[in-house]
Structure formats: structure tokens, C-alpha cells
Amino acid sequence: MKNKLVTIMVIILVSITLVGVLAVVAITKFNGNGEKKDPSIEEIVKSSVDIPEITTNLGSGDFIKMSFTIQTDSTSAKKELEQRTFQVKNIIITELSDMKPEALKGKAGKIKFEEQLKTKVNALMKEGHIVQVYITSSILQ
To answer: Which tens digits make up the pLDDT trace of 107-125?
Structure first.
């Protein structure tokens, strides 16, 4: 008789706990507390840094002119990136110096290069991180 009573109490306690957890999850989901809001265009512009046009040789001897806009996750990260512009230019030039023109042709090549830059520049950052690298102009000759 006692074992049945203990078993029933445990089942009731587990059921109440499960209902409570489900209620917390449902409230959090419907209130949007767990969702990350996409930044507005104004916020993106405020946290972005323009890298002026860079002209350099590729590994094949061809040359390329490119400019970039780099989006950070905060204004403090933007300030740091503005101070590190010379390091970013160095990364861009050294990365391009090993590339062949075929690697930068087409959408896939440009996206891959943007991701390479994002990874390398993020390694430099102490305040925040890089969200996205955008190629804003590109001329390959």
C-alpha cells in the first residue's frame, strides 16, 4: 500500500514539473525573449567601417582593385576596427597576393573570399567581432 502511494506521488510531482517546464518554454517563445532581433539598416551603418579601394597584384601577375565595407557587432568594435584599418589592408593584400583570378570570379569565389577575410579579421579583434564583410567594388584585370 505504501509503495503505491509513493509511486503515485512521484508521478504527480514529475507531471507538475513537466507542465511547469513546458509553460516556461511556451511563455519564452511567445514573448520573443529567446529570439534575436535582426539589426535595422541604421544600426548596420552605424557599426560598419568602409575600407577604401585597394589596388594590388594577384599571384598570377594580374591586378585587382577592390573596396569593402565591414560590419561589426557594436560601435565599440567599429572603433577598434577603424584603428586596425592598416592591419585589415595588410590582410587583404597578403590574401590576394596568393590568389589566382579564377578564385575571385563568380559569386562563390567572392563569398569564399569574404568569409576568409571575416575569419582573419575576427582573429585580430578584441572588442566585439565581425558580422559580415561586403565587397563594395571589384575590378579584375
So the answer is: 999 999 999 999 999 999 9
Beta-carbon contacts of residue 121 (< 8 Å; ≥ 6 apart): 70, 81, 84, 88, 91, 130, 133
Give residue 99's Cα distance to chain centre. 24
119 and 55 share a domain?
yes
Region 81-97: mean pLDDT is 94
- C-alpha 49/C-alpha 29 separation (Å) is 34
Residue 68 and residue 130 in one domain: yes
Does 77 have pLDDT greater than 80?
A: yes
Buried/exposed 67-85: b ≥16 CB within 10 Å, e otherwise: bbebbbbeeebbebbeebe
